[in-house]
Structures are given as structure tokens and as C-alpha cells.
Design a protein that fits this description.
alpha/beta, two-stranded parallel sheet, about 15% helix
């Protein structure tokens, strides 16, 4: 049994799903890396990433906010790739998923000053770090859980603020996904 943070089963992708050089296996010869997945859901377990807890988010019980007070339909805050300031430059970053989401629904102008093609007021897709991150999650109905360099720490953030996780990352298990019924609290 392995306890890991990245539940990549290697079943959906012929190439590495990360742009992070230390985890990118594309340049490792097959005879050195073996012909097996990095993660086997029958025996391994994905653990949540360690994040500094935010006591304010817990004391304020943002997770208990009623639906009527959740005015943002969808929320994602994170690196959106090379079209944005300080964005990761690699095309393989996030398997291109964050970049595609931003191209369609970006709510913050990219380097060319453009918003997403289908931008709407109640959808937030931004790269701007926010002092109100937990408040913004708790004001949202759905929250994006998208890969970055392989896995995403957004699952925990979403759940702890009562936001329904929307998981877009095939072939990659999230924390406890092989023992919990994700269909009962998330959209994949």
C-alpha cells in the first residue's frame, strides 16, 4: 500500500500529465520506469495535501452558508497558464484544462485584455490571489477541482466551504476517492 498525494492511474494519458520537471516521466526510458501505474486504487490511498488551516473560515462556519447566500454559480481561482500574468508557460500544465476553462469563462482579463468568450457575471475564473478566497468559495455553488501539476488541492478547499466540487481530471484519483462515494457530494 502506498499513501500518495497524486492518484494518477496512467490509464487515460500516454504522456505525463504534469509540467513539473521532477514528476514528468516522459524523458525516463520505459525500462527504467516500468510498465505499471503510479497509483493502484485497489491497494493505494490518496491523502489530502497539507494546507495551513484557516481558523477564520472555520469559526465563521462558512461551510454552513445557505444556498440563497451562494450567488456565484461556479468559482475557480488558480494559475491559468501562459495567457495570464505569472501563468505557467508550459502547454502541458494542467493538461490544458485550466487554459481552456479560462479561454471560455475567464473573469479576469488575460495579457491581451480579453475576458473568456462566454464570460458571465455569476462565474468566476481568475488567477488573482484573493484575501477573501474562503469567503468566495463559500459564496459559490460549484467550485472547480482541476489539475495543476498532476493533482489538485482544490477538493479540500471546496468541501470545507460547502461548495460542490466539479472535478475535471480523468484518470487521476482525489483524496479518499477509492473509499468514499464521490457521486454523493461531487460532480465528475
Amino acid at each position: 500500500m502506498m499513501l500518495v498525494h497524486w492518484g494518477n492511474t496512467n490509464t487515460k494519458h500516454e504522456k505525463s500529465t504534469t509540467a513539473y520537471w521532477a514528476d514528468n516521466w516522459d524523458d525516463i526510458p520505459l525500462d527504467r520506469r516500468g510498465n505499471h501505474p503510479c497509483f493502484d486504487p485497489r491497494k493505494d490511498l490518496v491523502l489530502p495535501a497539507w494546507k495551513e488551516p484557516n481558523p477564520g473560515a472555520i469559526w465563521l462556519k462558512l461551510w454552513a452558508r445557505p444556498r440563497i447566500n451562494r450567488t456565484t454559480l461556479f468559482y475557480f481561482n488558480g494559475n491559468l497558464g501562459p495567457a495570464y500574468e505569472e501563468g505557467r508557460r508550459e502547454d502541458t500544465y494542467s493538461m490544458g484544462i485550466r487554459q481552456k476553462l479560462a479561454a471560455e469563462f475567464g473573469s479576469t482579463p488575460n495579457k491581451q485584455g480579453k475576458l473568456g468568450r462566454q464570460h458571465t457575471a455569476n462565474v468566476t475564473v481568475t488567477y488573482l490571489k484573493s484575501e477573501m478566497y474562503y469567503e468566495e468559495l463559500a459564496s459559490s455553488i460549484f467550485c472547480g477541482v482541476l489539475p495543476g501539476d498532476g493533482w489538485s488541492g482544490r477538493m479540500e478547499d471546496s468541501m470545507l466551504q460547502g461548495c460542490i466540487p466539479v472535478i475535471i481530471q480523468d484518470g487521476i484519483f482525489l483524496p479518499y476517492e477509492n473509499v468514499l462515494n464521490y457521486n454523493s457530494f461531487a460532480v465528475r
